[in-house]
């Protein structure tokens, strides 16, 4: 699964809006919207901030999906 699809799935499972997730992760709405729509690829730091905000247990795999999608 592509990172942006996984991000959207996790965000929706937690009933978070893009704005609310952005606030929790310290990422602007416009950047988060671009990531979720697959227009940009997040940096490792941004992916980690999203993993923390979404309370993902396996943060390493989530970050790896963002920065090395062909590796998984």
UniProtKB/TrEMBL annotation:
<dbReference type="InterPro" id="IPR010982">
    <property type="entry name" value="Lambda_DNA-bd_dom_sf"/>
</dbReference>
<keyword id="KW-0238">DNA-binding</keyword>
<dbReference type="GO" id="GO:0005829">
    <property type="term" value="C:cytosol"/>
</dbReference>
<feature type="domain" description="HTH cro/C1-type">
    <location>
        <begin position="7"/>
        <end position="62"/>
    </location>
</feature>
<dbReference type="GO" id="GO:0003700">
    <property type="term" value="F:DNA-binding transcription factor activity"/>
</dbReference>
<dbReference type="InterPro" id="IPR001387">
    <property type="entry name" value="Cro/C1-type_HTH"/>
</dbReference>
<dbReference type="Pfam" id="PF01381">
    <property type="entry name" value="HTH_3"/>
</dbReference>
<dbReference type="InterPro" id="IPR050807">
    <property type="entry name" value="TransReg_Diox_bact_type"/>
</dbReference>
<dbReference type="GO" id="GO:0003677">
    <property type="term" value="F:DNA binding"/>
</dbReference>
<protein>
    <recommendedName>
        <fullName>HTH cro/C1-type domain-containing protein</fullName>
    </recommendedName>
</protein>
């Amino acid at each position: 699964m592509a990172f942006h699809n996984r991000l959207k799935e996790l965000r929706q499972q937690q009933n978070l809006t893009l704005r609310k997730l952005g606030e929790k992760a310290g990422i602007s709405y416009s950047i988060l919207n671009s990531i979720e729509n697959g227009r940009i690829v997040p940096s490792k730091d941004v992916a980690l901030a999203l993993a923390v905000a979404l309370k993902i247990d396996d943060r390493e795999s989530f970050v790896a999906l963002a920065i090395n999608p062909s590796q998984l």
